[in-house]
Design brief:
With 564 residues, the chain is mainly β. It folds into 3 domains: 33 residues, no CATH class; 112 residues, Beta-1,3-glucan-recognition protein, N-terminal domain (Immunoglobulin-like, Sandwich); 300 residues, Sandwich (Jelly Rolls), CATH 2.60.120.200. Helix content is 9%, strand content 31%. The strands form 8 sheets. Strands 12, 15, 16, 23, 28, 29, 30 and 32 form an 8-stranded antiparallel beta sheet that branches. A 7-stranded antiparallel beta sheet has the order 13-21-31-24-25-26-27, with no helix packed on it. β28 and β29 form a beta hairpin.
């Protein structure tokens, strides 16, 4: 909820009840389905008038909120309101932002809380143990392999205890299956003598699995977290990770091996559920149902025909509404499509997952072991995507391809990696690096690596470097000869702009589109990139391309990200 104060006095409290989303649905608020999760920033400003904040019944108000001449009428009455503004020689905005951490307002002394003991158990579970010191409440907030971005959210697991047991406060979990190398991130809220205290930025890296019946190791308040940020041996890296203040050189900052029993255990990933649009307009919709699974320690994304789920003629005369599951812009073409004439619904359903809500970083070494899809007009998406469109939409803010191979057999020996900084060629592929394989890349698993540095990019496959990208004096200089409009915004950043902001990992599979398959280089291509019937003509040629999809899945064994 929310609490509101002025000069230290509380004047309001807002209780979300079952959630603002539930309340908004009762009032048919159209954008409520898009209320998922995110972060906020502080803004300070001053604005004038407008059509919502001053009711029409305010005396001497010179405009009507619904009037088409509202701004004009406001200005015509300058003589009445401007003198009141001139009385203020200056406007001073002084703000103090702080987190009270729920401490009592009686000025009592703070207290120290020792670092708890954490144990990973076999075959499943873990426990967190805190020795009692007169506490009346201990709340546990826990994430598995996902760091807390702000240190104060509820996390994947939360438990509040009001009674110690035999002199200890214990949180016991018997559901989570942990492996060596996993990390338990957690924070505590402890109350003692009416005072509240937060213990944040705690983490425990699993090095072994203990038997639940064993005696826990001795509690020692001087034992730091296994990821203690004040480690004197830490050499600070140039890598930045959202939510962390200090990253050690060469540290493993993200790891996913997909050794999970089901998709629900993928806590570090969120699915994209939407109709992808500009600038590439692929011929698929992203929906994880029936297209995304875990098998044998690998993530598997398999394309399926829309008609196999919804019926033969569905794509010609129906509406496909992703409703509340949609992760795109609510009530837009990202969430709802209707077939109309030659504009059929996407004939293929695929999947895409990202770390957007759990892991974002700037600079590092990304390693992905994957088996790429085979099949005409299939495209793997193993990318880094921008968290925010700081330099503009689409590829104006950049994208980095870790591995990109077209699924057509006659071009499947060509591997590409590197940045994409424009919607269309020739600059779209200008910076991509190419590696010709001895065989088609989709035939086996390979280790694809991208090293993202403050002064360039390196691309490797199976440990062998096959390309580097040097920004020189800035990518904007290289783009000028192609008349790329967004170069002026890149000049506001570093020489790596737009590749100097926070990015996240994305894994997906898409089909066709209007930019990645040139009209003049691939025989048998059933559509033209500039035609309005591209999707329809692609679908009409199903009998030609669909037989090639016998090994069409993208399989990812692991993803690891290291600090520089």
């Amino acid at each position: 909820g929310l609490q509101l104060f002025v000069d230290g006095e509380q004047y309001g409290n807002i209780d979300p009840g079952d959630g603002f989303f539930s309340t908004a649905r009762q009032h048919a608020v159209p954008h409520a389905s898009n209320w998922l999760r995110g972060t906020f920033y502080i803004s300070l400003g001053l604005r004038v008038g407008g059509v919502h904040d001053f009711a029409d019944d305010i005396p001497e108000k010179p405009w009507r909120n619904r009037g088409s001449k509202a701004m004009l009428d406001f200005w015509k009455n300058k003589a009445t309101w401007h003198p009141s503004c001139m009385k203020l020689k200056s406007i001073l905005i002084e703000i103090l932002v702080f987190v009270a951490l729920c401490r009592a307002q009686n000025g009592g002394e703070n207290f120290e809380v020792p670092t708890p003991t954490v144990e990973a158990l076999q075959p499943k579970g873990f426990r967190i143990i805190l020795k009692d010191d007169g506490y009346s409440f201990v709340g546990f907030r826990i994430n598995i392999n996902v760091d807390f971005e702000d240190g104060l959210n509820d996390g994947q697991i939360n438990k509040d205890n009001t009674q110690p047991r035999n002199g200890y406060w214990v949180y016991m979990n018997r559901k989570e299956k942990l492996n060596v190398g996993d990390t338990i991130y957690y924070w505590l809220y402890v109350i003692k003598n009416g005072m509240g205290h937060f213990v944040t930025d705690l983490a425990y890296e699993v090095t072994h699995l203990a038997n639940e019946n064993q005696t826990p190791p001795a509690l020692n308040s001087r034992n730091p977290s296994s990821l203690d940020p004040v480690d004197p041996s830490c050499t600070v890296s140039k890598t930045l990770v959202q939510g962390k203040s200090r990253i050690c050189k060469d540290a493993l900052i993200f790891s996913e091996d997909f050794e999970r029993a089901n998709l629900e255990e993928l806590k570090q990933w969120a699915p994209s559920i939407l109709f992808p649009g500009e600038p590439d307009y692929p011929f698929n919709v992203y929906d994880p149902n029936k297209t995304l699974r875990i098998n044998g320690g690998s993530l598997v994304i398999t394309p399926v025909l829309t008609e196999s789920i919804y019926g033969k003629d569905f794509i010609y005369n129906s509406v496909l509404d992703l409703d509340e599951r949609c992760t795109g812009v609510a009530h837009s073409s990202e969430c709802r499509m209707e077939a109309l004439g030659a504009q059929i619904l996407p004939p293929v359903i695929t999947a895409k997952i990202t770390t957007r809500y759990s892991f974002n970083f700037t600079y590092g070494r990304v390693e992905v072991r994957a088996k790429l899809p085979y099949g005409s007009w299939l495209l793997p998406e193993i990318n880094l995507e921008p968290l925010e469109y700081s330099y503009g939409y689409n590829y104006d803010s950049g994208l980095m391809r870790i591995a990109f191979v077209r699924g057509n057999s006659n071009v499947a020996k060509k591997l590409y990696g590197g940045p994409v900084l424009a919607d269309a060629d020739p600059f779209r592929s200008e910076l991509l690096q190419e590696k010709i394989g001895t065989d088609n890349w989709y035939k086996d698993y390979h280790n694809y690596t991208l090293i993202w540095k403050p002064d360039g990019l390196d691309m490797l496959v199976d440990g062998e470097m096959y390309g580097t990208v040097d920004p020189g004096s800035g990518f904007s200089e290289r783009a000028k000869k192609y008349n790329i409009k967004q170069t002026s915004s890149w000049n506001k950043g570093t020489i790596m702009a737009p590749l100097d902001r926070m990015f996240y990992v994305s894994l997906g599979l898409r089909v066709g589109g209007i930019n990645d398959f040139d009209d003049n280089t691939l025989d048998g291509k059933p559509w033209k990139n500039t035609e309005s019937k591209a999707t329809l003509n692609f679908w009409k040629a199903k009998d030609v391309w669909y037989p090639s999809w016998s090994n069409s899945a993208l399989k990812v064994d692991y993803v690891k990200v290291y600090a520089l």
